[in-house]
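Researcher: Quick test of sequence recovery. Tokens follow.
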């Protein structure tokens, strides 16, 4: 099945480069281009795209506000947003995830890695670049910063099995399913099943939000503290 991709970036040359790269893959197809967030929202509705490559800084309507609108629209529930930006800084990472983005990679990513990222996002998984993951973890390491820690009182961690908690803690480190499977001596399918069940129980839209919940609730600890 062909994955339908929408490119949202205010630079024409960037969009053209992404289009050539994406259309070179047999399983991917560019279905539209947007130069700002407002256009991205309209095209997402018109093209029924699967994945949007979303820049953050765009005129008129930026990528973060567009992402919030898209992920909040029930009619666009199947649309996944992959933030592709030059600015892999902690504030943008946190805002992107809270806005509902399913992934975050830098524009310096290798072409093959970007294509794989699109496939990962389309499959319903989440992806954060190593740098973005570190930025997110470091943000939660700041004990005095409560801006990214809304009260998790509505979350019932008792719903999670011990194995699901273990998987969530590993997901929070930025490890892939394959890496977690190797570390815990499980199959990739088993890891994915546990992660998906944990997302459902905790109300996480995807793995990116599961990372946030893991740190909010203490299932995972930043820096040198070991996961619970």
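Model:
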């Amino acid at each position: 099945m062909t994955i339908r991709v929408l490119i949202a970036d205010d630079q024409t040359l960037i969009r053209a480069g992404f289009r050539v790269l994406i259309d070179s893959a047999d399983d991917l197809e560019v279905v539209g281009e947007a130069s700002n967030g407002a256009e991205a929202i309209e095209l997402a509705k018109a093209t029924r795209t699967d994945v949007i490559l979303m820049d953050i800084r765009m005129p008129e309507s930026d990528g973060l506000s567009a992402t919030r609108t898209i992920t909040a629209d029930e009619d666009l529930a199947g649309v996944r947003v992959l933030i592709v930006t030059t600015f892999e800084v902690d504030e943008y990472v946190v805002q992107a995830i809270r806005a509902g983005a399913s992934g975050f990679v830098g524009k310096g990513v290798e072409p093959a890695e970007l294509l794989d990222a699109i496939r990962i996002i389309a499959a319903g998984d989440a992806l954060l670049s190593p740098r973005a993951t570190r930025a997110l973890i470091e943000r939660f390491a700041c004990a005095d910063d409560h801006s990214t820690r809304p009260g998790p009182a509505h979350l019932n961690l008792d719903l999670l099995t011990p194995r699901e908690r273990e998987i969530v803690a590993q997901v929070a480190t930025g490890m892939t399913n394959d890496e977690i499977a190797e570390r815990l001596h499980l199959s990739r399918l088993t890891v994915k099943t546990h992660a998906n069940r944990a997302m459902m129980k905790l109300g996480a839209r995807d793995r990116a939000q599961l990372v946030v919940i893991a740190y909010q609730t203490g299932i995972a600890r930043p820096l040198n503290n070991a996961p619970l």
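The first strand starts at residue 3 and ends at 8.
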